[in-house]
Structures are given as C-alpha cells and as structure tokens.
Amino acid sequence: MRQHGQLLNMQIMRAIAAALVVFGHAGQEMSLMATRTGQSSPNLEFFNWAWGVDIFFVISGFIMMHTSGEHFGKPGASREFLRRRLIRIVPLYWLTTTAFVLTALIAPKILNVPPSGLWHAIASYGFIPEANANGAVRPLLALGWTLNYEMFFYVLFALGMLLPLRKGLLALCALFIALLGLGALGPWHNTQVDFWTSHLLAEFLLGVGIGLMARRGFTMNGVEALFVGALGVAGAVVMGPLWGMETEIPELARAGVPAAFLVAAAVLGPDVSRNKVTVWLAFVGDASFALYLIHPFAIRPLREVWMRVADGYLPMPLYLLAAVAGAIGVAALVHLYVERPLARTFNGLGKGAARPAKAESAGALSPA
C-alpha cells in the first residue's frame, strides 16, 4: 500500500474539510455583524459548510484503519492505540475548553452560549454528551461535540482490535449496525443513547471500508478519481440547501456518502505532486485539529474589533477573508508551539513509549 503520496493527499483533504468548517462559522459571524450594524452581507446558506465534519469522520475511519489495521489481534495493540489517541486529542482539547471557561469569566459577551453548570463542565471534559443551556447536545466548547463521537469511535475500534483483523472488523460492523438499528428505533429520550446511536457512526464505518480497500491494493486512475470526487462534491451541493433538498433526504445520503466519495477519490486516486501549494495545504491539514478547535477564539474577537473599528467602512466579505486567514495563522502557531510540544511531552511520559508515526498524527479531528 502506498504511503507518502497517499498521506499527502489525505492531509490536503483534511485542510479542505477544516477550511469548510471555518468558512461556515466565519460566515455566521459575518451575518451576525450585518444584523447588528444594518449592513448587507452575502448569503452563504446555499451550501452546508458543516459538510467538512462529515469529511472528517470518514477520514477518521480511514486513518485508523490505515495506521492500525496491521495491529489487530496483537497483545497490547488496543491499549497502545487508545494511548496514542488520547495523547492526540485530550491535551489540546482540554486546554481550549479551559480557555473557553476563562473567556466566560473574563469576556462573556464574546460567547454565543454561556456555560451551563458544573455537571455540564464535567461531562465536557469527560467526552460525555450532555445538553447545554440552549438544550443542544454540545459541550462547553461547542465544537467538541465531534470529539464526543471520536472518543466513542476510538473505544469501539479498540475493542475490535482485540481480535484478529477479519474477526475484529466483522465484530465492529456488527456492533455499529446494532447501534444504528437501535438509533433507527428511537428517539430514546436519553441524551447519551440518542447521541451514540446516530447515523454519524456509519460515516466512520465508511472510512474504515475505504481503508480496507486501500489495504487490499484498490486504486483509481486520474480520470476515475476525478469522476468519483466530482460526484461527491456534486452530491453535497445538489442535495444540500441550494434547492432545499436537505429536508427531503436523510443526512447520511446527502452528506456522509458524498464525503465518502470525496475521501475515496483522494486516497485511492493518484498522488498529488509535491509543490509549494500542496506542501502548504498539507501543513494546514496537519494543523487542522488546532484550526478546528481554536478558530472561534480568532474569528469572534475579530468580529468585536471589526464592529468597533471598521463598521461601515469596509465590506463584510473582507471580514470573511480576514477571519479565515487569521484563524489559519493562529492555528499554525498553536500547532507548532503548543500542540506538537504537548504531544512530545505526553509521549515521553510513558517509559519506553514509541513515538507515534507521522501517519497516525493525521488521524484525528477530529470533524469534527
């Protein structure tokens, strides 16, 4: 199975997924500013920018299969998988969650949703789905809802790793199908059960399937990859808000399946050439977890400054571009000087712990 070029493709795909989420959230802030100031702003609701999260979930399933497929059934492999996943996700997420709490104490006006009490805070740090003050099942740092799914994915995948590959994947599929069936029979009016039986589980399973295809040596030529990728993008556009079809088609069909098509085209198609643009995009992809978590801390303060300094003087789309660029810049700094040092520190705490492969560092959103 090819490695370097395939992972370059995947990192670029992660950059695109993160950019979609950031662009969508910056667009929401732009609309909020327009409402407050009476200015006009472009309508960005023609596309589901949260599609980036669906792409991230499919990528997550693929990366776990890509990096850990050969370790199924090996003693200690399941424990090591969870250790590396926790090191990848927990430090930066807890740090940004704590930053949210401090923001709530120091500058609460910046926040769209205030904290919701002690239990909600405990659940947020523990990756337990819980409703916030507005009734939405979101942690303190609302973006962390995707990580609640990721942690659940990791636990299920680690259980599958206790068995040899074939039996482990069959058991994993059976477990996911059972959970999806349980969810289809709901709602169960229990926050955790309803959350952990969502159709989003299937997106992770689609990624695992793509990873298995890659392990078996399945590839696409350039024309095939272009067609499959274009089909995925077209599906997300046509079945999205543009013509109001998002209310008529199940979310898995209109978001998850197109995301799987796009990811499959990226990882099974030809390797992109290495140049300044693709290397830069790959770096953004490597920093995508930081970008996903910290971008609200960049775009919301910029919103407040923009309304005070540039109100009426600069066009709203300029804020959109500044917010996305600023978020990427801050994320790059956080990735280089916070996220990477944290990972090195926690990896060094385990005596004799192996340094995680760079391929595995691409595995999380997670987007999520």
Count of strand segments: 0
Shape: globular
User: How large, in whole angstroms, is the Cα Rg?
Assistant: 20 Å
Q: What is the H-and-E element order? A: HHHHHHHHHHHHH
Write a concise keyword list for the protein shown above.
about 375 residues, mainly alpha, 13 helices, disordered C terminus
Question: Explain this structure to me?
Answer:
By secondary structure, the protein is mainly α. It has one domain (4-362). 68% of the residues lie in helices and 0% in strands. The chain has helices at 4-37, 51-68, 77-106, 118-125, 145-160, 165-185, 191-196, 200-215, 222-238, 251-268, 276-286, 288-309, 316-349. The radius of gyration is 20 Å and the shape is globular. 42% of the residues are buried. Mean pLDDT is 88; it is low at 351-368.
Sequence-ordered SSE layout with sheet pairings:
Blueprint: H1 4-37, H2 51-68, H3 77-106, H4 118-125, H5 145-160, H6 165-185, H7 191-196, H8 200-215, H9 222-238, H10 251-268, H11 276-286, H12 288-309, H13 316-349
Helix pairs in contact: 1-2, 1-10, 1-11, 1-12, 1-13, 2-5, 2-8, 2-10, 3-5, 3-12, 3-13, 5-6, 8-10, 9-10, 12-13
